[in-house]
Design goal:
Blueprint: H1 5-39, E1 42-43, E2 49-50, H2 56-59, H3 65-96, H4 99-110, H5 117-128, H6 133-138, H7 151-175, H8 179-187, H9 192-220, H10 224-229, H11 237-247, H12 251-287
Antiparallel strand pairs: 1-2
Helix pairs in contact: 1-12, 3-7, 3-9, 3-11, 7-9, 8-9, 9-12, 11-12
């Protein structure tokens, strides 16, 4: 029996989508279901998971309030600082640099990703440690300066590590900017600052929101930077999860924190997408 063209297209689409769907289901959906089940259980006497149905783990989230506070404070601040640094860089690359040199400079933005984040973070440990900047400050009479194992050190590591991820979406958004709009604004007598806030910034907001959402979501689960630059004094949720799963072996409580983190990430993502859609719709209306 011959298949209709529509049926054939559906079968081809299903065959193409099936491998990726199966991969996501096995390695993403099933583990998350297991974590949700664990979150309603109890810690076994020898550690691990013991079957039960209780909300006690979620009621105990307050005991890790410091980790939630550091994450929910430093992650948005880190994203905002990344934005402040990334936007001028992306604007310069997309608008000011000639096409002949643009590819080279954009490549330099990506170069840090060629080196492991672990190695780069260890470099900052040396720079901020006793033999780094504090040692240099002693020569000018400034003593007892502690930079490592502080929230400032963690924030600096966050900005350094995630800055390229903020630059690239903004750069892509600005690169698509119609230069004729800027020229028309200048011809009509608008000042550069008015042109920026009236044309450039609104048209680049989708890229800004993409960069902010991407960096914030990754920072909410960050573990390495707080562990190395925070020195055990600046905990993120990721550090709490490692402690609960690998050291305390309190899998139900760690699962409850992980589920809560996923809920926070989903909320952040939905809010960012909603804002981006509104901005994109307003931009289309303005251009019409």
């Amino acid at each position: 029996m011959a298949l209709s063209p529509d049926t054939r297209k559906r079968l081809i689409t299903a065959a193409l989508v099936a491998p990726a769907s199966a991969w996501l289901f096995v390695f993403l959906v099933l583990p998350f279901i297991a974590i949700v089940v664990f979150s309603f259980g109890e810690r076994a006497p020898e550690g691990g998971y013991q079957a039960a149905f209780t909300f006690a783990q979620f009621a105990n989230l307050g005991s890790r309030a410091a980790a939630f506070k550091n994450t929910l404070v430093l992650a948005p601040i880190g994203s905002f600082v990344c934005l402040l640094v990334a936007y001028p860089v992306a604007y310069y690359l997309a608008v000011k640099v000639s096409p002949q040199h643009r590819l080279l400079l954009v490549s330099l933005v990506v170069v840090p990703f060629w080196t492991s984040l672990l190695v780069r973070t260890y470099a900052w440990m040396y720079i901020l440690g006793a033999r780094g900047i504090p040692h240099l400050l002693e020569f000018v009479g400034i003593e007892n300066v502690r930079l490592l194992n502080t929230p400032g050190a963690v924030l600096l590591g966050i900005v350094y590590g995630y800055l390229p991820l903020m630059i690239m979406p903004i750069y892509v958004s600005l690169e698509k900017l119609d230069r004729r709009l800027l020229e028309a604004s200048a011809d009509l007598g608008a000042r550069p600052l008015s042109t920026f806030f009236g044309i450039t910034l609104p048209l680049s907001l989708p890229g800004v929101m993409t960069g902010v959402a991407l960096v914030t979501i990754l920072l909410l689960g960050e573990y390495l930077i707080p562990q190395l630059l925070g020195g055990g004094k600046v905990f993120f949720i990721g550090n709490a999860l490692v402690d609960l799963f690998l050291q305390s072996r309190n899998w139900p409580f760690g699962s409850a924190i992980a589920v809560t983190l996923v809920v926070v990430v989903v909320i952040v993502l939905l809010v960012a997408m909603r804002i981006a859609w509104r901005v994109a719709g307003a931009r289309q209306v303005d251009l019409v």
